[in-house]
């Protein structure tokens, strides 16, 4: 069994994999990390290895604490990957994007794949049918767009995401919802069309915290997978054991 840990900007996602099957999954705040680690190892004695993707605030002390329980691989640009990395600055490529590219490589090993991670930021990552990571794009996520309008203006409120009835907003709040939700959906659909114009038989995978909210609002056919990044981390851990 393997322990998979994804430390994001807002929450930590922890999963125990028995081969590729998820037998434990939990989202926690950073403050609950140590407590949850102890709970996992009291229940899953067969866990021998762990991998951490850390884009958030897990400290070196907490990583050292985890290493008391099992062997720990901290994902970085120096980790081995199953794909060819053609990113111009591989040392700056985020560990979350490395994990998503790995998941895409194993999910569609001989095809062109675009992974869209709708989280704090929306990231786009492309793997071609030669198993080559090409790069992609990064843009503000849904919550970030709402927050930016509130923080950078004098009178706009801070809103939570909400479905829109019509793309023409008839109040300040409905106009903001339309701007964010309609804007994000049109951005994603437009970028998918750009990739489809270059890559034949493109597989599109949508993941991240806002994936379910967005999936039914997009025009393009996509494959939604809420734990796609965790699956990529699992494959990376196994690959780096070799």
TrEMBL record:
Residues at which K(+) binds: 117
MF GO annotations: ATP binding; metal ion binding; pantothenate kinase activity
Keyword field contains Metal-binding: yes
GO cellular component: cytoplasm
Record's cofactor remark: A monovalent cation. Ammonium or potassium.
InterPro entries (alphabetical): ATPase_NBD (IPR043129), Type_III_PanK (IPR004619)
Swiss-Prot/TrEMBL GO biological process terms: coenzyme A biosynthetic process
Binding positions (substrate): 87, 94-97, 172
Known EC number: 2.7.1.33
Active site, UniProt feature: 96
HAMAP family named in the record: Pantothen_kinase_3
NCBIfam families per record: baf, PRK13320.1-5
Record-linked PANTHER family: TYPE III PANTOTHENATE KINASE (PTHR34265:SF1)
Subunit-level organization: Homodimer.
Name of this chain's protein: Type III pantothenate kinase
Organism expressing this protein natively: Arenibacter aquaticus
Record lineage: Bacteria, Pseudomonadati, Bacteroidota, Flavobacteriia, Flavobacteriales
